[in-house]
């Protein structure tokens, strides 16, 4: 989710397109340009983006953004956009995970936003470093930022009290996490200690990266030809194997993790690793909750930030300019702060973070400061063209371990074989 405002002329935007059409391409008979937006948001996020789109349309009479959504969840947007590009019928803007940007940006239809972002209305250096890293591929800015988040553990205080357990504290270990999850599990009452997506998608995978980084691993080894977590991955998967052995984790086998979160919102899960986007729904459900940093192996907390993007596609110069204008409008602090508060994101820039609306929101929202403070230890997934294949291989390994089909050692060997093969393919 993102935003950034201001009406800019074609020259000021500085869009570089792969195959731009004529200057009037996309302009209707009434002089209005229609921009098709695939956002993939649901529930709170959908309502928030649609409200902002409605305001943009009211204040920009020559542009109409159509927030159709794309018909898929954000988790499936990569496949949807890839198929659309192959068919030659694609949107003007799509919500693309930062981890998928390098793959998508290989298409000549992706608009180069280097000038638009670095010389745009929101100063480039005011965006947090994870944000800048997430939209940059080979030194070029290939998208506008959409969402900034981090990962922490949200816990249900009532379930802890019922189990007679102390609330978790910063610096806790992964062994303490698995032991606590076991003690909180009560199958007779339908209560799980924690949960994990078991689809094999990116939501399954990204939760494991902080564990691997904490152990000293990297997504890609320095030689660029192998994964950088062959040893660390086994240890992290052993932690998941323990959850599976104890039957203390609710395993969500449907895409989107909606069931996992519903279990937590229904007070049948005591702990869930999630981001600030989930807090609005948790507050609405009147859960008595707390937030604590992720557990650690090393004693030094590491988390992940998963900045996502608004990626602009070339459907002619007029539509490209209008799409960039919308992305810039969404990114401006005055609109970014509304998106963050409504949909549960963190400020994209220091400009947003210093706005009084954000400060008031943070002060009254339990645990939001934990997510914000954890950005100091946050890392981002590499913007690497082979990342989708690495993620798929690791996702399969995670699911096989959670379901007890393979040992951590066997699952990681299979992951390494597939991921290393993907890294050897010329990009």
From TrEMBL:
InterPro entries from the UniProt entry: Bact_solute-bd_prot1 (IPR050490), SBP (IPR006059)
Domain of life per record: Bacteria
Endpoints of the signal sequence: none
Highest classification ranks of the organism: Bacteria, Bacillati, Actinomycetota, Actinomycetes, Kitasatosporales
The protein, known as: ABC transporter substrate-binding protein
């Amino acid at each position: 989710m993102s935003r950034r405002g201001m009406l800019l002329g074609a020259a000021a935007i500085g869009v570089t397109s792969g195959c731009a059409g004529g200057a009037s391409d996309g302009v209707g008979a009434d002089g209005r340009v229609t921009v098709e937006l695939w956002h993939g948001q649901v529930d709170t996020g959908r309502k928030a983006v649609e409200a902002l789109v409605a305001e943009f349309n009211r204040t920009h009479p020559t542009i109409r953004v159509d927030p159709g959504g794309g018909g898929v969840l954000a988790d499936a947007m990569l496949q949807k956009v890839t198929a659309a590009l192959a068919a030659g019928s694609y949107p003007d803007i799509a919500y693309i995970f930062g981890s998928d940007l390098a793959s998508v940006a290989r298409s000549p239809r992706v608009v180069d936003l280097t000038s638009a972002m670095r010389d745009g209305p929101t100063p480039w250096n005011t965006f947090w470093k994870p944000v800048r890293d997430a939209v940059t591929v080979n030194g070029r800015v290939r998208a506008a930022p959409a969402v900034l988040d981090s990962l922490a553990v949200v816990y249900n205080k009532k379930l802890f009290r019922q189990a007679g357990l102390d609330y978790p504290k910063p610096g806790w270990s992964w062994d303490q996490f698995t032991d606590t999850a076991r003690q909180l599990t009560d199958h007779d009452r339908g209560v799980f200690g924690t949960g994990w997506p078991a689809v094999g998608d990116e939501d399954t995978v990204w939760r494991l990266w902080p564990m691997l980084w904490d152990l000293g691993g990297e997504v890609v080894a320095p030689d660029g030809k192998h994964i950088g977590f062959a040893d660390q991955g086994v240890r992290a998967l052993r932690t998941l194997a323990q959850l599976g052995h104890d039957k203390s984790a609710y395993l969500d086998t449907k895409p989107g993790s909606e069931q996992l979160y519903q279990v937590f919102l229904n007070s049948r899960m005591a702990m869930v690793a999630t981001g600030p986007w989930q807090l609005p729904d948790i507050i609405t459900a009147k859960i008595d909750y707390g937030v604590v940093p992720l557990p650690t192996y090393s004693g030094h907390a590491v988390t992940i930030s998963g900045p996502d993007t608004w990626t602009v596609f070339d459907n002619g110069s007029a539509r490209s300019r209008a799409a960039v204008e919308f992305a810039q409008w969404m990114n401006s602090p005055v609109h970014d702060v509304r998106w963050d508060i409504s949909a549960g994101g963190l400020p994209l820039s220091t400009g947003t973070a210093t706005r009084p609306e954000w400060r008031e929101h943070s002060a009254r929202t339990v645990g939001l400061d934990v997510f914000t403070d954890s950005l100091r230890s946050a890392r981002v997934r590499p913007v690497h063209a082979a990342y989708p294949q690495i993620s798929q291989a690791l996702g399969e390994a995670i699911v096989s371990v959670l379901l007890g089909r393979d040992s951590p050692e066997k699952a990681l060997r299979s992951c390494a074989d597939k991921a290393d093969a993907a890294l050897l393919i010329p990009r």
